[in-house]
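Team,

Forwarding the record for the chain on the shared tracking sheet. I've put the sequence and predicted structure together so nobody has to dig through attachments.
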Amino acid sequence: MRVLVLEGLVRESLAVVRSLGRQGISVDVGDPHRINPARFSKYVSDFYKYPDPKESGDEFYNWLLSQVKKVKYDMVFPLNDHTYEICTRFQSQLQQYTRVGVNSLEKFEFARDKAKTFRFAKETGCIPIPQTWIPESLDELKSIIEELPDFPVLL
């Protein structure tokens, strides 16, 4: 089995690389930066420098599609918002060549919006949340501040 872990710079990538590598899975790592923690793990087979998805999403997508066509990966793991969003938007194209560890675009966009997530948790009661305000204007923020409980308050 062979997998590609994207975003070797983020701290989660090293944990994913180690976990998969300990199971005997061949792991390749990609990142826009040549120096990143995951790249130097003893479990990494190959490293690939790719276009920065924050700056050029189309170039990154073209690189990724070319990579999964060229190398037979069993799965691709995007590990931050930028690579995850691109993999989600183009999952049908990518899944012609490999599996991609993403949800639907609708679920991704919902979870990415913290205000929607808080509102959902509050309305359904499915997850306990602290008292939360989401002001829609500066005037509303000012009125909320006047009614805040004793400090400390997390903003």
